[in-house]
Amino acid sequence: MPTPNTMRALQLRTLTGGDGLVIADVPAPTSDTNVIIEVHAAGIGFPDLLMTKGQYQFKPTPPFIPGVEAAGVVLRAPEASGVRPGDRVIASSMLGAWAEIAIAHPLSTMPIPDGMSFEEATAMVNYQTAYFGLVWRGAMKSGETVLVHGAAGGTGTSAIQVARGLGATVIAIAKGDEKLAVAKDAGAQHCIDADSEWLTEVRAITDNRGVDIVYDPVGGDRFTDSVRALAPLGRVLVIGFAAGTIPEVKVNRLLLRNTAVIGVAWGEYIRVDPTMPRTIAASLAQLYDEGHIRPPIGGVYPMERCGEALQALEERRATGKLVLKIR
């Protein structure tokens, strides 16, 4: 397939969030070693928000094209990449997805399951993280109980569906009736308001045993109670810090109950095992085919309204996966 020479893209000119974004005509990227993708939809997530404000651990200098997740059709690919022109794929890269054309490393480019829309596919990096965290890092087993914080967002709903699909009981923590309804629709068997005495309710649900895994993309003040919520041999999976503060743990709590706090950094582990995304993608495709994975889409935005999506994330109003419609 021919690759265009120019493209429309959302370019970040200043580190001021959505206000710093401008739709611009820019040269299309080229590469002989990476996959070139005609982007149909792109993910809008919390890392994107932080990056547009210069608050992410990776701090590119403006101007640059944000966007971590690109779903679309392969235009060109190296011979040994495992994908071919015309294939429907989801790709992950640190930058460049908010554009009509994107490039991605072959090992970070994965086929989209048959029947899945491009909009749904933008959530699959969240599902990769959920599977990597719960299975690879958390060693989750069928029959265990998993507590999910931030359960109504794209990160939380993916963890709910992966855990349920693999046989776990899920307790969802989210703020307010609307978000609790999203978590329930995603498959959580128990839903608790984050502003309630949630630890007391968790203990009641588990007959005072506690949960086997806490999936925590939030951090902040509730982290100590997350450790207290663990059953013996329980694990807290540290996914991120949407609350804005990085908590600390007193390790004597871990010692006394034989529990653990485990870091989950899917993107970093690709450096250790570049084949990991493709391996997990095969497991996720099976869960999708079995009906366990159905990404909730919280909103689809044209390029001109991307700032509104970022504002919804910043104000904690977003639920499900937010999507940028490119085509």
Question: Could you explain how this protein is built, in words?
Answer:
It is a single chain. The protein has 327 residues and is an alpha/beta fold. It folds into two domains: 6-123 and 295-325, Quinone Oxidoreductase, Chain A, domain 1; 126-267, Rossmann fold (3-Layer(aba) Sandwich). The chain has helices at residues 46-52, 118-121, 124-137, 154-165, 176-186, 198-205, 223-228, 251-257, 266-272, 276-289, 306-314; strands spanning 6-12, 21-27, 35-44, 69-76, 88-92, 101-104, 109-111, 145-148, 169-174, 190-193, 211-216, 230-238, 260-263, 297-302, 321-325. Strands 3, 4, 5, 6, 7, 14 and 15 form a seven-stranded mixed sheet that branches. A six-stranded parallel sheet has the order 10-9-8-11-12-13, sandwiched between helices. The two termini are 17 Å apart.
